[in-house]
Fold this protein.
Amino acid sequence: MVAVCGLFLAGQAPPPAPESHARGTLRLHYVQKPIGEERYELAREGEGYRLTSDFEFTDRGGRVPLAATLRTAADFTPTYFQTKGKSYRFVNVDSEVRVDGGTAIVRDRGSESHVPVRTPFFTVDGYAPFAAQMLLLRYWKQHGQPRTVVTVPGTPTHDVIIEPRGREAVRAGGQVVTLDRYLVDGVVWGRETLWLDQDGSLAAAITRAGGLSFEAVRDDLEPLLVGFVERATRDRIADLEAITRANRPLRAGTYAMVGGTVIDGTGRPPIRRGVVIVRDGRIAEVGGRDEVTIPPEVARVPIDGWTLMPGLWDMHTHVTQIEWAPVYLAAGVTTVRDMGNEIEFIVPLRDSIASGRALGPRLLLAGLVDGGGPNAFGVVYAAGADEAKKVVAKYHDLGFQQIKIYSLVAPPVVEAICDEAHRLGMTVTGHVPTGMTIEQAVASGMDHIAHLPIRGEADSDEVRRTIAFLREHKTVVDPTQSWNELLGHALGTPIADFQPGIAKIPPPLNRLFSSAGSDGDAAAARTRLERTLRIVKALHDAGVPIVAGTDEGIPGHSLHREIELYVDAGLTPMEALQAATIVPARAMKLDAELGTIERGKRADMIVLNMNPLERIENIRGVRWTIVDGRVYDSRALWKSVRFTP
Ligand SMILES: [Zn+2]
């Protein structure tokens, strides 16, 4: 058995002599499942080097190929870079960079520009190919390990931060291999971890693609994959705890928020000049300024002109990187349901947040399970009833609240999972598995349904029957309409037209979303969206609980959009806000503790500049977020993860 030892060797090794040529094969993994390979070759060419890479994976049946060429000088300064293909299912890549002195001539998806580049700089277009990131690290070492490097194509003013993080010895094939570990932040949004061996060859990399964890491991080190994930996780959680120490709450303990409009979230009209007293993380009193007596020793926090309401929930996310924790609080989200992740990452992250060492939203976990086979998702499978029991028990023991069923679970196994989950006091959510109808999935025991797998017109007999069936079974639906809108909008429609948050996200994320969208015109996209919004409204009118979820989207901002879309669908602003507060709290059986501003509940609240009942877009104006009574400044949190507030 091979394992990452976590052994740190003291002392400095001499800098490696660049090899004259090298080949490598990296095994690619998505959420730890092996899905493809990157083969690269680095050869001498003239005074410098020429790297070629063939990168290809197949994710749930979809093929994602990418080819790249990179030429450099002897010190790894890039002279030419070309990459074409895809780096994720919906991310098209087609760029070419020629470097001429201090100028990069960039051809990017058809348009050409001349970009002045300041040194140090490198050419890389997203996380793939990994061999380009390997050369980025070699360049950085050859240039005195500067703290930051800029990159093209993309935004040549956005700093990529590189830090050495340690040296470790791993055992593979009976040999001890010494690896240096690096943090790279800015090639994608958030932190990546890369390991180089003593020859400067890439040993492993942990990053994200399509919002989920993506790993590359050199073929001989593949048995160490989970060890690499665990090592990267320890770095990441240490980073989040450092962000937490640098962003102390403005206030904690006992205080009174005085003078603002209080939307308690119960559905009652707002209190115009309200008072909320917070005592040690809980709401001690709520009422009008003339009804509540504030004890003299309690500090008063004036919030005149502002609005206080319950903290928001995102019921469909995948928190696969620590940067989400500050983002969610910055956006006013105090509880999230994670809908599928790597156990080795999400459990330590949840525990760090729950202990108070790290800031972040409350994390409720739904454990992902699929049916296995080449097109399966993730690495947790149940092919039969016995396996189903084991998987559910494992998640239960790790403190998960739910199971998330994925598309390839066989119908009899769906029932076995639901039975066992219910027996253990858990609930079940997820996709309607292939070959089942939504009615069959619900009849098998699924308590929640993810996305909105209902086709047709809201007033058709068939859709009405489905809605009546869901109401009868008290099924909870998270329709992820903001995600549908983001991926389904016509490419000719700027995202900023419906999502102003796009202007505030870090450049690597912006680059990712700028290629997402559908062919076809804006009217057709709007018609599709409106058709599903009518189903959302019909579900809501029938009494089916609608809970706001994003499936990530534009971090933080998509949850605001989801709420706005419910108002577009015809819900009142209060109902739309409740879909992101008390309704999810009830769905997760946590409404005695969370979801409204009522005496005795946990103090999870947000302070907004303006009242979202008057204009739902005001939900975007989060000023402070209060979680367990700790008051955080939204602007500082956005900045801590490189967003514009
Ligand atoms: Zn999802």
